[in-house]
Amino acid sequence: ILLALACVAGVYWTARTLFGRGAGVFAALAWLLAFPFVYYAPLGNPDGPMLAWTSLGLAATAEVLRRGLTPGRAALLGAFVACAAATKDQSAANFVFVAPLLLGLHFASGASHRWRRFEGRFVGPAIAAASLLVVFVVASGIPLDPKRFLQHTALVFSVGPGAGAKQALYLRHPSDWGGTLAQATDLAFHLMDVLGVLLIPVVAGLALAARRDRRALVLALSSAGMFLVLMPVGMSRIHYLLPVALPLCAFAGLAFSTLWSRTPRAVGTAVALVLLGWHSLRTLDLIDAMRNDSRYEASAWLDAHTQPGDSVLFFGAPYKNPFLRADVTALGVDPRERGRELLATRPAFVITQPEDTNQRRERVEWRRGPLSVRNDYVADDVWRDLTSGALGYRLVAQFQSPRLLPWAYRPPLSYASVNPPVQVFAREDRAEGAPPLTAWETAPHNPPVWRVNEPLRE
Predict the structure, then answer these.
(1) Cis peptide leading into 335, omega within 30 of 0?
(2) Are 295 and 422 in contact (CB under 8 A)?
(3) Cα–Cα dist 305/325, whole Å
(4) Tens of pLDDT along 93-149?
């Protein structure tokens, strides 16, 4: 949570340094209300902390652009970039184009600085490099476990393009011109998903910077660097584009501050309220889905209907399931061939819900259709017999909370991990008195999908 707040502060700091206080406020609000950021901010996933360090690194970049590369700013810039890269390796891509340009601008300025007994134009770059190296080594845990770092590095390079059999971890676009175009399309659309209506002031801000403040466009190169690094990955998920969208919020702030200064305050205020208000609708819808997640209600139902010593069968990852009491045993189906075998042990209840990958880690279409209500671990014949009652089970409960704002387009997140449809089947002797239910064929309250371009295993 502290790092999430630091991320928003970094966006404000960056835009204020480059374009003024009004731009900083608007940029910070734009980022604060971005629904994928709101989702990842409180999670243990590394994307939130990585975004925080990247944001602070961009703030230091803005300081250098406006006020020069002093020893203090150089140390901060190196440390923030190192923390970002140590948190998630690819975040270094946000600075791959920025760093050479900062060096070029520094040397072109002829600025000279002193640190202890050292003086000259190389003081700032040397301090930045030393800070980057020292902080990265410590933050990566190399002094504590160098072998672990080498294993991590080997894994990073083992799953990239041309990695052979290990590339089967994911289903990717092919490495040809058609696949490259499809990947670029996915990335562009996911960037639109993150920015939403704020794409309008972002484009306007970039145009304004190109006309009036080309030095500030160095910030846009941060987005370009990350976008290009994602191109050869061959697949895309919405959170991959968060570090691409992050620097662009400053340009949205520039567009707003320009409008604010050139029109009556009432006009600027109205435009800001409309843009940020519409932008926030998706976030409000997501927060409501998180607060009323189907698994809370399913957990309460299971708590009331399970007994000490009961077993509950589920399919897929256990940490995504509803909570179970401590005196109830969870049985997991992995691999899918064991589904019928475990059902033969006669667990009291069976839980089904979707998953975004199959057991071979290939992507599946979980947002609509049959796999939006059950994951690939449930074999087709097992599902047919389970829903028909042939296995001695009956559907007794279904959970998925309706959306707060179903008319507001909110793109689905990358995973089926917010308010998934949960269906509970009970053994016949435990289903007495339950009203008859029909199994869902597709999720009733998933956000609508208007674009699916990635290759998926149906």
Answers:
(1) yes
(2) yes
(3) 11
(4) 999 999 999 999 988 887 777 666 667 788 889 999 999 999 999 999 999 999 999
Q: What angle do CA 32, 261, 105 make, to 5 degrees?
A: 70
Residue of 26, 13, 17 lying closest to 257 (CA atoms): 26
Looking at the DSSP assignment, which residues form a beta bridge with residue 115? 118
* The pair of three-digit structure tokens given for residue 292, joined into one six-digit string: 């009323």
Q: What is the DSSP string of 336-369?
A: GGGHHHHHTT--SEEEE---SB-TTS-BB--SSS
Q: What is the mean pLDDT of residues 147-160?
A: 79
The predicted model gives 269-278 an average pLDDT of: 93
- pLDDT tens digit string along 297-307? 999 999 999 99
Where would I find the H helices in 47-198?
Answer: 47-67, 71-87, 98-109, 123-139, 146-158, 177-195
Give DSSP secondary structure letters for 438-452: ---SS-SSSPP----
Closest CA relative to residue 186, chosen from 359, 414, 357, 447: 414
Question: Given the DSSP bridges, would you call strands 349-352 and 311-315 parallel, antiparallel or unpaired?
Answer: parallel
Q: Report angle CA 173, 195, 63 to the nearest 5 degrees.
A: 105
In the block, tokens 């959970």 appear at 399
DSSP 322: P
| Span 334-377, pLDDT tens digits | 777 788 888 889 999 999 999 988 877 777 888 888 999 998 88
444: amino acid identity, one letter:
P
What are the residues whose beta carbons fall under 8 Å from the beta carbon of 263, sequence distance 6 or more? none
Determine the Cα–Cα distance for residues 301 and 297; give it in Å rounded to an integer: 6
Nearest alpha carbon to residue 192 among 38, 25, 363, 411: 411
Q: How far apart are CA 367 and CA 443, in angstroms?
A: 8
- Residue 66, both tokens: 């406006």
